[in-house]
Design brief:
Layout (H helix, E strand, L loop, with lengths): L4 H18 L4 E8 L2 E12 L4 E2 L6 E2 L4 H14 L28 H5 L28 H8 L13 H15 L3 H10 L22 E3 L2 E3 L7 H4 L2 E2 L1 H15 L8 H7 L32 E7 L2 E8 L4 E7 L5 H19 L16 H5 L3 E5 L3 E8 L2 E5 L7 E5 L5 E4 L1 E2 L3 E2 L3 H4 L1 E8 L2 E8 L2 E2 L3 E2 L15 E5 L9 E8 L4 E7 L3 E9 L4 E4 L9 E7 L2 E6 L2 E5 L1
Antiparallel strand pairs: 1-2, 1-10, 2-3, 4-7, 5-6, 8-9, 9-10, 11-12, 12-13, 13-14, 14-15, 15-18, 16-17, 18-19, 19-20, 19-21, 22-23, 22-29, 23-24, 24-25, 25-26, 26-27, 27-28, 28-29
Length: 561
Amino acid sequence: MKISRKELAKTIDQYIQNEIKQRKIVGLSVAIVDDEGVLMSDGFGYANKDNKTKASSETLFPIASITKTFTGIAVMQLTEKGLIDLDKPISDYIEELSLPGGEEKFITTRMLLTHHSGIHGDILYNWYLPDVSDNPLIYEQVVDLINKEGCVFPPGKIYSYSNSGYSLLGVLIHKVSGKPYVDYVRSNILNPLEMKSTIMFAGEKTENQIALGYDRKTSSTMPMKLGIPAGGMALTAIDAAKYLKAIINTYHGNTTLLKTATLKQMMTAQNGLVPLDESFSIGLTWFLQNPINDYTKYASHRGELPPYHSMLVILPELKIGVYIAINTNDSSIPDEMAHNIIGKLFEYLTGEKINIKNYNEKGTFDLSKMKAHEGYYPNVYFGPMKVKARKNKLLLKSIALPMPLQLIPNADSTFSMSVNLFGFIPLPIKMLQAMKAEFRKIDDEKHLVFNIMNTLVNPNIKIEPYNIPEEFIEYKGKYRVINMDNSERIVKNVKIVKSKDFFILKYTFLGNYKFNLALQPINKEKAFIAGIGQFMGEKIYWKTNNNKIQMHWSGLILEKE
């Protein structure tokens, strides 16, 4: 017997309460809409645990990169007006852009919207500003930063998530509309939707409570992000519900936010002709890859501004959408909760459960074929992963893993992953159970690709050990940032270490993510971060100043301790 809509809301409410308790979530903001309107719009837990202030439907939670969906809509509004051609060079609109390799003549607005521009993903200098600023144009500093750092990949070659690219779209909006980004979005999106409480950046005045962020017991305020168009906004649950409804209504032709055809274009894959993007689907801003696509159209965007995390998921054809934001430093929570709630809504509307297909039918182990996969594959987290075939096993070793992973062949040419304690006791690790590996050859390049829940992760290109100049020995050691205050909120524990075959840049990003990046020497003073995709391809060089070794990287100057 089908439950009522009221009972559905009660079930979801109880699910949220259980998650808050079990996962120790400090505060949470949720908005849920369906074909009848707003099912839920509320706050849970604490906006400020320090003084016991409860979160409510009017509490502001930072949404980080979900801001990009507003930026994308703004760009497409201007495209509808004929002020932007998605496939013209970005330099036609931003004359000040002048990259070291002249790539501005090849980068298009479409590439920026789909993260295929090749521009640095994150220029770390001032990623978080040391102080809150009330200057809504501060993001336009990105032009000078991009001009200095340039591209890390050829435009159009590969999907590589770029906050810098979306900050540049904010400059584009200003150039062609004559209105600064913040003013444009407020005038053309927020005001028409009566999103009266939304703020565009941390320094904007508001009468609403902004939730404090929590990392374990430590609390912090909303950070000021230089890239306002890439991740500066904060929403209340009330405004989030209005935004979800507006997008769904637009999809069905019932609003003036955009033309329906334009929004459907935004939610249509744009990267089908990019070989390295096989099995990955992105629209104009929206991420489209999820097993739910086997049932109905799916679009989403996540946001991470540690210790704040958020997720927005829409099934536009079914007129349902979910927004979750938390002020607790666990990036997996909003993603999992939003998809669990979407699953409940889907079942309520269709009577059918979403089942994730499992293709784990075992394949055969052919030692000669497995040996063809041997070699090193650099990964952001694992460093240069070494794949080695031994007897009836294909092993993956990494300096970031306490023991090797075993790659188990499946019938569909993918590999499942497991780790065996002492070589023979399988350990049930949740992440590994959801993860597949696949070896691909594209344009004579070999790649090891990871797939989590049928969603592609950046490919890891095969590399060989490099000839390391003797001078690199001097670069080993710990480093501290000397050209930016408050830098530890972005990078800390920075060091250069040597493994058996590689020099590795190790650091902690945004307080939570431990990176291990292989370095590819250019000469005795310069190197690239080996690999392709976000955080890869960046340039590093060393100088000596006052007898101190300094490392220049992503806008930062770091001194060896």
